[in-house]
Amino acid sequence: MVVTPSIDVLSNPFSTNQLPCIINGKPYSTSKTYARNDPHTGEHLFDVTAATEDDARIAIESAQAALPAWKATSPTERRTIFQNAVRIIEQRKQDIVRLATFETTNTVAWSHVDIMLTMAALDELASAITQLKAEIVRPGPGQEGYIFREPFGVVLGIAPWNAALTLGFRAVSNAIIGGNTAILKTSEHSPRIHNAIAQIFSEAGLPAGVLNVIHVDPQDAPKVVESMVAHPAIRKINFTGSTPVGAKIAEMCGRHLKPSVMELGGAAPFIVLEDADIEHAVNNALHASFFHSGQICMSANVLLLHNSIADKFLASMKSHALKAGPTPDASYRGLFTTPSADRVRALIDDALSKGASRLTGSPGSGNIIHPTILDHTPESARIVKEEIFGPAVCVIRFQDEEDAIRIANDREFGLSAAVFSKDLGRAFSVARRIESGAVHINDSTIHDYPTLPHGGWKKSGWGRFNGLEGIKEFTQTKVITVNELHKFPVS
Questions:
Q1: What is residue 434's three-state secondary structure?
Q2: Which residues does 313 contact at the CB level (< 8 Å), separation at least 6?
Q3: How far is CA 307 from the centre of its chain?
Q4: Domains of the chain, first to last
Q5: How far, in Å, are 219, 418, 446 from residue 436 at the CA level?
Q6: Mean pLDDT of residues grouped by 10 in the chain (491 residues)?
Q7: Which residues form the catalytic set?
Q8: 76: closest CA among 170, 165, 205, 235?
């Protein structure tokens, strides 16, 4: 093993040094690596230590050793550490932005949003932890029951790249503040940002071993992840990412009887009723469809527009000339890989071949696609029901709200949705009938409030993150009863 001197990635975000894993609060490097390349140019940026099954076991053992002491800490001690982390993020904002725009296809604007969301989520967890209280019930005469919430143990969190700071922290923070220790398995597209999470927590006072970070070569991921899921010390797994990968991890969890939280793909319907404020809805549709180049699980994939307002709505959308570019200060950047962009192009081509018309956008080249709106999209087009995860949105016109609700629910996903109407009672009635973990009235589909539980229905996953509900998700119930002395009849 070759040990590098520091876990600090924020002071020099453009470093070309080999990126270590972080185990027991220290950098951990081996000769096995994979390359991290610039997603726009393909230029080599740096090498990343690639953990093997043995390295993953060492990380788990570190978390297991740290568990008894961390489990015994008070909620107020944990809260102080989380509050410290929020302050450090605030102080290191510019370093985080530089790192994120260097390593990923983040724009500067999206990086600032990622930071803001992270701070809000950590702050809410810090506030919520003291609300996790024991309950006392009296099940019968002479009996008392005490209901406690206790940590699972070591939790494996697997995070994506697209909101690397928010989702990287979320993969471990709900568990850690609940008294668990954690392993963060990073995304191969944002390993350095995910290392920054360990740095920030360490500087905030989190004891060594409570959080361990490992990077895995994508080719080795199936066997390394399964070895971690199978390890007896791993008591719960959470994964945020695509539904196909989530299905494989859920299968592993099933084989080894491990509970899990899955926040998977989405294909959010965006319904605009005839009495909506058109310009307000257009602004939100642009945000829901194209923010972060559509690479958000809550992004809108179908705009369901009432026939009477569709032309006016689309004329307004078209007037916003949206273009993508490779630089961090662009409004929209390229997708995280060229194959991902090619997949989006295939969805667009399928819709066009079935009768849709391109209202805006162009195919671009490489990993860049210019924001695309497809009008008159038939329901048979793949893009209507599949997760797009790119800068494209399709339009279907409807005659009445029953038709809109049918189309909105005719999909395998149920993570987020939106309904626009000036009649809040009507909008609320429609929202209640949409099969989704969240429905936003007169607002974008892209919302994850730290004070509200977040998660999906159907193939968008199960379990919830955020606040008290998120902490409860990573604790388990224990019942202790106290009874008056009595005798059972034995004969």
A1: coil
A2: 272, 278, 281, 282, 285, 303, 305
A3: 35
A4: 21-264+460-478 (3.40.605.10), 268-441 (3.40.309.10)
A5: 34, 10, 13
A6: 64 92 97 93 95 98 99 97 98 96 93 97 96 90 93 98 97 98 98 98 98 98 98 98 97 98 97 98 97 96 98 95 78 90 97 97 92 97 97 97 97 98 98 98 95 96 96 96 89 76
A7: 263, 297
A8: 205
